[in-house]
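Hi Y.,

Following your request, here is the sequence exactly as I used it, all 105 residues.
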Amino acid sequence: MTDITIMQRELTPFEHLVLDLLCKGLSNVAIAQETAHTEKVIENTVSRSARVFGITSDGDTNVRVLLALAYRTHFGDAAFESFGLPCQHLQPGVDGKMYCARHVE
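Below is the corresponding structure, written out as tokens. Let me know if you'd prefer a different format.
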């Protein structure tokens, strides 16, 4: 299996937008409506973004699930924040505040 924690290149701002919406559970149709693009543009963006993380479709792989996991690994748990769920990686810092142990700013 490919290591989805290694990005092949930086994502474009539009790819970030699409993947953020994908992580929130939106379908391609819903993402297309939200971004005022066609469903085909969203499908192509999802496919192109999957290649950034080395994710390929092989019949046994759910590309959208792996893509959401890879994206969240790199860019944090914003999707969970929108649902009001706390990040699962919080640890107390030296100042006593809680910080995510995985997501570096």
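The radius of gyration is 15 Å.

Thanks again,
Q.
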